Amino acid sequence: MKTAKWKGILLGTVMALGLAGCSGTGSNTASGANKNTYPEKAIVVVAPSGPGGGWDRTARTFTKVMTDAKLVDGSMMVENKPGGGGTVFLASYVTQDAKNDYKLFTGSPPVLINHLKKEGNSPFGHNDTTPLAQLTKDYGSIVVKADSKYNDLQALLDDLKKDPTSLSFAGGSGPGSMYHLVSILPAYKTGIDHKSIKYVSYDGTGEAMTALLGGNADVLATDASSVTQYVKAGEVKVLAVASPERMGGELKDVPTMNELGIDAEFMIWRGIFGPKEISEDALSYWNEKIQQMVETEEWKTAMTSAGWESDYKNSEDFKEFLDQQNDQIAELLKALDMAK
Protein backbone atom coordinates (compact mmCIF):
# COMPACT_ATOMS: atom_id res chain seq x y z
CA MET A 1 0.00 0.00 0.00
CA LYS A 2 2.86 2.35 0.96
CA THR A 3 4.58 1.68 -2.40
CA ALA A 4 1.37 2.38 -4.28
CA LYS A 5 0.92 5.64 -2.36
CA TRP A 6 4.40 6.89 -3.28
CA LYS A 7 3.83 5.91 -6.92
CA GLY A 8 0.66 8.01 -6.92
CA ILE A 9 2.49 11.01 -5.47
CA LEU A 10 5.32 10.64 -8.00
CA LEU A 11 2.87 10.35 -10.90
CA GLY A 12 0.99 13.44 -9.75
CA THR A 13 4.24 15.41 -9.53
CA VAL A 14 5.30 14.37 -13.03
CA MET A 15 1.89 15.38 -14.46
CA ALA A 16 2.06 18.73 -12.69
CA LEU A 17 5.52 19.40 -14.09
CA GLY A 18 4.32 18.36 -17.54
CA LEU A 19 1.37 20.75 -17.40
CA ALA A 20 3.64 23.53 -16.21
CA GLY A 21 5.81 22.89 -19.24
CA CYS A 22 2.78 23.39 -21.47
CA SER A 23 2.03 26.80 -19.97
CA GLY A 24 3.92 29.83 -18.79
CA THR A 25 7.42 30.08 -20.27
CA GLY A 26 7.03 26.96 -22.39
CA SER A 27 3.88 28.32 -24.03
CA ASN A 28 5.51 31.67 -24.84
CA THR A 29 8.44 29.95 -26.49
CA ALA A 30 6.16 27.81 -28.64
CA SER A 31 3.87 30.67 -29.60
CA GLY A 32 6.88 32.89 -30.23
CA ALA A 33 8.25 30.36 -32.70
CA ASN A 34 4.91 30.31 -34.54
CA LYS A 35 4.11 34.00 -34.21
CA ASN A 36 2.92 35.67 -37.40
CA THR A 37 5.58 38.29 -38.21
CA TYR A 38 3.90 39.47 -41.43
CA PRO A 39 4.25 42.17 -42.64
CA GLU A 40 7.92 42.95 -42.26
CA LYS A 41 8.12 45.60 -44.97
CA ALA A 42 5.92 48.02 -46.94
CA ILE A 43 2.80 46.78 -48.71
CA VAL A 44 2.16 47.87 -52.30
CA VAL A 45 -1.44 48.00 -53.53
CA VAL A 46 -1.64 48.24 -57.31
CA ALA A 47 -4.44 49.95 -59.20
CA PRO A 48 -4.23 48.39 -62.71
CA SER A 49 -5.33 51.69 -64.32
CA GLY A 50 -4.54 55.37 -64.43
CA PRO A 51 -5.46 57.79 -61.62
CA GLY A 52 -9.08 58.73 -60.95
CA GLY A 53 -10.92 55.53 -61.84
CA GLY A 54 -12.65 53.01 -59.63
CA TRP A 55 -9.60 50.78 -59.12
CA ASP A 56 -7.45 53.77 -58.20
CA ARG A 57 -10.03 55.19 -55.80
CA THR A 58 -10.53 51.78 -54.18
CA ALA A 59 -6.78 51.31 -53.68
CA ARG A 60 -6.34 54.75 -52.17
CA THR A 61 -9.39 54.44 -49.93
CA PHE A 62 -8.26 51.00 -48.74
CA THR A 63 -4.73 52.09 -47.88
CA LYS A 64 -5.86 55.36 -46.29
CA VAL A 65 -8.43 53.74 -44.01
CA MET A 66 -6.04 50.94 -43.05
CA THR A 67 -3.45 53.57 -42.12
CA ASP A 68 -5.78 56.05 -40.44
CA ALA A 69 -7.39 53.31 -38.35
CA LYS A 70 -3.90 52.09 -37.37
CA LEU A 71 -4.64 48.55 -38.50
CA VAL A 72 -1.47 47.91 -40.48
CA ASP A 73 1.94 47.21 -38.99
CA GLY A 74 3.95 49.28 -41.41
CA SER A 75 3.48 51.49 -44.46
CA MET A 76 1.22 51.04 -47.48
CA MET A 77 1.55 52.67 -50.88
CA VAL A 78 -0.46 52.75 -54.11
CA GLU A 79 1.00 52.23 -57.56
CA ASN A 80 -0.83 52.78 -60.85
CA LYS A 81 -0.13 50.19 -63.55
CA PRO A 82 -2.38 51.02 -66.53
CA GLY A 83 -2.60 49.03 -69.73
CA GLY A 84 -5.10 46.85 -71.55
CA GLY A 85 -7.93 47.43 -69.10
CA GLY A 86 -6.01 45.60 -66.38
CA THR A 87 -4.75 42.71 -68.53
CA VAL A 88 -1.17 43.97 -68.80
CA PHE A 89 -0.74 44.18 -65.05
CA LEU A 90 -2.46 40.86 -64.34
CA ALA A 91 -0.21 39.01 -66.78
CA SER A 92 2.86 40.46 -65.08
CA TYR A 93 1.49 39.80 -61.61
CA VAL A 94 0.59 36.16 -62.22
CA THR A 95 3.89 35.32 -63.88
CA GLN A 96 6.26 37.38 -61.71
CA ASP A 97 4.60 37.88 -58.31
CA ALA A 98 2.85 34.57 -57.63
CA LYS A 99 4.51 34.35 -54.19
CA ASN A 100 4.83 38.05 -53.40
CA ASP A 101 2.90 38.63 -50.17
CA TYR A 102 3.79 42.30 -50.31
CA LYS A 103 1.97 43.19 -53.53
CA LEU A 104 -1.84 43.25 -53.64
CA PHE A 105 -4.16 44.74 -56.24
CA THR A 106 -7.66 46.09 -56.61
CA GLY A 107 -10.08 44.41 -58.98
CA SER A 108 -13.66 44.39 -60.22
CA PRO A 109 -15.64 42.45 -62.87
CA PRO A 110 -12.95 42.86 -65.60
CA VAL A 111 -10.85 40.32 -63.67
CA LEU A 112 -13.50 37.82 -64.77
CA ILE A 113 -14.66 39.39 -68.03
CA ASN A 114 -11.21 39.80 -69.58
CA HIS A 115 -10.61 36.07 -69.18
CA LEU A 116 -13.97 35.13 -70.71
CA LYS A 117 -14.39 37.58 -73.56
CA LYS A 118 -13.44 37.01 -77.17
CA GLU A 119 -11.82 40.33 -78.05
CA GLY A 120 -8.61 41.13 -76.19
CA ASN A 121 -8.85 37.93 -74.17
CA SER A 122 -6.58 37.51 -71.16
CA PRO A 123 -5.20 34.03 -70.42
CA PHE A 124 -5.44 34.82 -66.70
CA GLY A 125 -8.44 35.13 -64.38
CA HIS A 126 -9.43 35.13 -60.72
CA ASN A 127 -8.27 31.53 -60.24
CA ASP A 128 -4.71 32.71 -60.91
CA THR A 129 -4.90 34.93 -57.81
CA THR A 130 -6.09 34.71 -54.21
CA PRO A 131 -9.24 36.80 -53.71
CA LEU A 132 -8.81 38.43 -50.29
CA ALA A 133 -12.03 40.41 -49.81
CA GLN A 134 -14.91 42.09 -51.55
CA LEU A 135 -15.19 45.62 -50.22
CA THR A 136 -17.96 47.48 -52.04
CA LYS A 137 -20.66 47.28 -54.65
CA ASP A 138 -21.63 49.88 -57.22
CA TYR A 139 -23.71 49.95 -60.39
CA GLY A 140 -23.31 50.85 -64.05
CA SER A 141 -24.54 54.19 -65.34
CA ILE A 142 -25.07 56.01 -68.63
CA VAL A 143 -23.70 59.57 -68.57
CA VAL A 144 -23.65 62.56 -70.93
CA LYS A 145 -22.26 66.10 -70.71
CA ALA A 146 -24.41 68.69 -69.01
CA ASP A 147 -25.02 70.50 -72.32
CA SER A 148 -25.96 67.31 -74.21
CA LYS A 149 -29.28 67.33 -76.03
CA TYR A 150 -30.18 64.10 -74.23
CA ASN A 151 -32.13 64.48 -71.01
CA ASP A 152 -33.34 60.90 -70.74
CA LEU A 153 -32.16 57.47 -71.80
CA GLN A 154 -35.10 56.81 -74.11
CA ALA A 155 -34.22 59.75 -76.37
CA LEU A 156 -30.68 58.42 -76.67
CA LEU A 157 -31.93 54.91 -77.47
CA ASP A 158 -34.30 56.30 -80.10
CA ASP A 159 -31.34 57.82 -81.96
CA LEU A 160 -29.36 54.59 -81.63
CA LYS A 161 -32.27 52.67 -83.06
CA LYS A 162 -32.21 54.89 -86.15
CA ASP A 163 -28.42 54.59 -86.47
CA PRO A 164 -26.43 52.50 -83.96
CA THR A 165 -23.20 54.12 -85.17
CA SER A 166 -24.40 57.68 -84.58
CA LEU A 167 -22.96 57.99 -81.06
CA SER A 168 -19.58 57.14 -79.56
CA PHE A 169 -19.38 55.63 -76.08
CA ALA A 170 -16.32 56.03 -73.85
CA GLY A 171 -15.42 53.59 -71.09
CA GLY A 172 -12.53 52.97 -68.74
CA SER A 173 -12.08 49.29 -69.62
CA GLY A 174 -11.13 47.39 -72.76
CA PRO A 175 -13.38 46.24 -75.61
CA GLY A 176 -15.66 43.47 -74.46
CA SER A 177 -15.04 44.30 -70.82
CA MET A 178 -17.08 45.85 -68.01
CA TYR A 179 -17.87 49.33 -69.27
CA HIS A 180 -18.35 48.06 -72.79
CA LEU A 181 -21.05 45.74 -71.42
CA VAL A 182 -22.61 48.63 -69.49
CA SER A 183 -22.67 50.78 -72.64
CA ILE A 184 -24.41 48.22 -74.84
CA LEU A 185 -26.69 46.60 -72.25
CA PRO A 186 -29.66 49.01 -72.71
CA ALA A 187 -29.40 48.69 -76.49
CA TYR A 188 -29.19 44.91 -76.32
CA LYS A 189 -32.18 44.72 -74.00
CA THR A 190 -34.30 46.91 -76.30
CA GLY A 191 -33.49 45.11 -79.55
CA ILE A 192 -30.99 47.63 -80.95
CA ASP A 193 -27.99 46.35 -82.93
CA HIS A 194 -25.50 46.46 -80.06
CA LYS A 195 -22.66 45.10 -82.20
CA SER A 196 -22.62 48.29 -84.27
CA ILE A 197 -22.32 50.68 -81.33
CA LYS A 198 -19.03 52.56 -81.31
CA TYR A 199 -17.14 51.96 -78.08
CA VAL A 200 -13.78 53.61 -77.34
CA SER A 201 -11.77 52.21 -74.43
CA TYR A 202 -9.56 54.23 -72.09
CA ASP A 203 -7.25 53.27 -69.24
CA GLY A 204 -9.60 54.05 -66.39
CA THR A 205 -12.67 56.16 -65.82
CA GLY A 206 -10.55 59.28 -65.27
CA GLU A 207 -9.36 59.23 -68.88
CA ALA A 208 -12.80 58.29 -70.18
CA MET A 209 -14.39 61.20 -68.30
CA THR A 210 -11.79 63.55 -69.77
CA ALA A 211 -12.77 62.32 -73.25
CA LEU A 212 -16.45 62.98 -72.54
CA LEU A 213 -15.90 66.47 -71.12
CA GLY A 214 -13.49 67.28 -73.95
CA GLY A 215 -16.06 66.42 -76.61
CA ASN A 216 -14.22 63.33 -77.82
CA ALA A 217 -17.11 61.04 -76.86
CA ASP A 218 -20.88 61.48 -76.81
CA VAL A 219 -21.67 59.14 -73.93
CA LEU A 220 -19.80 57.69 -70.97
CA ALA A 221 -20.50 54.23 -69.55
CA THR A 222 -19.12 53.95 -66.04
CA ASP A 223 -19.87 53.17 -62.41
CA ALA A 224 -22.34 55.51 -60.73
CA SER A 225 -20.13 56.52 -57.81
CA SER A 226 -17.39 57.85 -60.13
CA VAL A 227 -19.60 60.59 -61.50
CA THR A 228 -21.16 62.07 -58.36
CA GLN A 229 -18.57 64.85 -58.07
CA TYR A 230 -19.16 65.80 -61.72
CA VAL A 231 -22.93 65.81 -61.19
CA LYS A 232 -22.50 68.05 -58.17
CA ALA A 233 -20.30 70.39 -60.22
CA GLY A 234 -22.92 70.56 -62.96
CA GLU A 235 -20.64 69.06 -65.60
CA VAL A 236 -22.60 65.91 -66.48
CA LYS A 237 -26.06 64.36 -66.48
CA VAL A 238 -26.71 60.74 -65.51
CA LEU A 239 -29.51 59.36 -67.69
CA ALA A 240 -29.97 56.03 -65.89
CA VAL A 241 -28.36 53.63 -63.44
CA ALA A 242 -28.31 49.84 -63.72
CA SER A 243 -29.22 49.27 -60.06
CA PRO A 244 -32.19 47.37 -58.60
CA GLU A 245 -33.47 50.55 -56.95
CA ARG A 246 -32.67 54.25 -57.01
CA MET A 247 -29.40 55.33 -55.47
CA GLY A 248 -28.98 58.09 -52.91
CA GLY A 249 -27.06 61.33 -52.65
CA GLU A 250 -26.43 63.25 -55.86
CA LEU A 251 -28.07 60.44 -57.87
CA LYS A 252 -31.33 60.22 -55.92
CA ASP A 253 -33.36 61.61 -58.85
CA VAL A 254 -31.78 59.36 -61.50
CA PRO A 255 -34.12 56.57 -62.67
CA THR A 256 -33.08 52.94 -62.80
CA MET A 257 -33.15 51.14 -66.13
CA ASN A 258 -35.85 48.90 -64.71
CA GLU A 259 -38.01 51.97 -64.04
CA LEU A 260 -37.67 52.87 -67.69
CA GLY A 261 -38.93 49.47 -68.77
CA ILE A 262 -35.48 48.09 -69.55
CA ASP A 263 -34.80 44.80 -67.77
CA ALA A 264 -31.13 45.48 -67.06
CA GLU A 265 -29.00 45.50 -63.93
CA PHE A 266 -25.22 45.55 -63.71
CA MET A 267 -23.52 45.38 -60.33
CA ILE A 268 -19.90 46.48 -60.12
CA TRP A 269 -18.20 44.95 -57.09
CA ARG A 270 -14.70 45.93 -56.04
CA GLY A 271 -12.24 43.97 -54.00
CA ILE A 272 -8.69 43.22 -52.98
CA PHE A 273 -6.64 40.39 -54.47
CA GLY A 274 -3.35 38.78 -53.51
CA PRO A 275 -0.95 36.37 -55.22
CA LYS A 276 -2.03 32.82 -56.02
CA GLU A 277 0.60 31.30 -53.72
CA ILE A 278 0.07 33.67 -50.82
CA SER A 279 1.47 32.48 -47.50
CA GLU A 280 -0.86 31.31 -44.74
CA ASP A 281 0.45 34.10 -42.51
CA ALA A 282 -0.41 36.80 -45.05
CA LEU A 283 -3.83 35.32 -45.82
CA SER A 284 -4.69 35.09 -42.12
CA TYR A 285 -3.44 38.64 -41.58
CA TRP A 286 -5.57 40.19 -44.31
CA ASN A 287 -8.69 38.22 -43.39
CA GLU A 288 -8.43 39.60 -39.86
CA LYS A 289 -7.40 43.16 -40.72
CA ILE A 290 -9.90 43.75 -43.53
CA GLN A 291 -12.78 42.46 -41.41
CA GLN A 292 -11.71 44.89 -38.69
CA MET A 293 -11.39 47.72 -41.23
CA VAL A 294 -14.94 47.51 -42.59
CA GLU A 295 -16.28 47.92 -39.07
CA THR A 296 -14.39 51.16 -38.37
CA GLU A 297 -15.87 54.65 -38.41
CA GLU A 298 -13.13 55.64 -40.85
CA TRP A 299 -14.45 53.10 -43.36
CA LYS A 300 -18.07 54.18 -42.93
CA THR A 301 -17.07 57.80 -43.46
CA ALA A 302 -15.09 56.87 -46.58
CA MET A 303 -18.10 54.99 -48.00
CA THR A 304 -20.35 58.01 -47.57
CA SER A 305 -17.77 60.35 -49.06
CA ALA A 306 -17.19 58.13 -52.11
CA GLY A 307 -20.87 57.34 -52.66
CA TRP A 308 -20.14 53.62 -52.31
CA GLU A 309 -22.06 50.88 -50.57
CA SER A 310 -19.97 48.66 -48.32
CA ASP A 311 -20.46 44.97 -49.14
CA TYR A 312 -17.82 42.94 -47.35
CA LYS A 313 -17.04 39.30 -48.08
CA ASN A 314 -14.05 37.49 -46.60
CA SER A 315 -11.61 35.51 -48.73
CA GLU A 316 -13.57 32.26 -48.75
CA ASP A 317 -16.96 33.88 -49.42
CA PHE A 318 -15.47 36.20 -52.04
CA LYS A 319 -13.98 33.25 -53.92
CA GLU A 320 -17.34 31.46 -53.90
CA PHE A 321 -19.07 34.63 -55.13
CA LEU A 322 -16.55 35.05 -57.96
CA ASP A 323 -17.07 31.48 -59.12
CA GLN A 324 -20.82 32.18 -59.37
CA GLN A 325 -20.25 35.53 -61.11
CA ASN A 326 -17.90 33.86 -63.56
CA ASP A 327 -20.68 31.54 -64.72
CA GLN A 328 -23.20 34.40 -65.00
CA ILE A 329 -20.85 36.62 -66.99
CA ALA A 330 -19.98 33.72 -69.30
CA GLU A 331 -23.70 33.36 -70.07
CA LEU A 332 -24.08 37.10 -70.72
CA LEU A 333 -21.07 37.24 -73.03
CA LYS A 334 -22.35 34.22 -74.91
CA ALA A 335 -25.75 35.89 -75.38
CA LEU A 336 -23.99 39.00 -76.71
CA ASP A 337 -21.81 36.87 -79.00
CA MET A 338 -18.76 38.23 -77.20
CA ALA A 339 -17.53 35.06 -75.47
CA LYS A 340 -14.18 33.51 -76.40
UniProtKB/TrEMBL annotation:
Please, which domain of life does this record's source organism belong to?
Bacteria
User: Secretion signal: which residues?
Assistant: 1-32
Keyword annotations for this protein, in alphabetical order, are: Signal
A Pfam cross-reference name = TctC
Family affiliation? Belongs to the UPF0065 (bug) family.
Q: Which PANTHER family match?
A: TRICARBOXYLATE-BINDING PROTEIN (PTHR42928), UPF0065 PROTEIN YFLP (PTHR42928:SF3)
Protein name, please?
Tripartite tricarboxylate transporter substrate binding protein
Q: Which organism is it from?
A: Psychrobacillus lasiicapitis
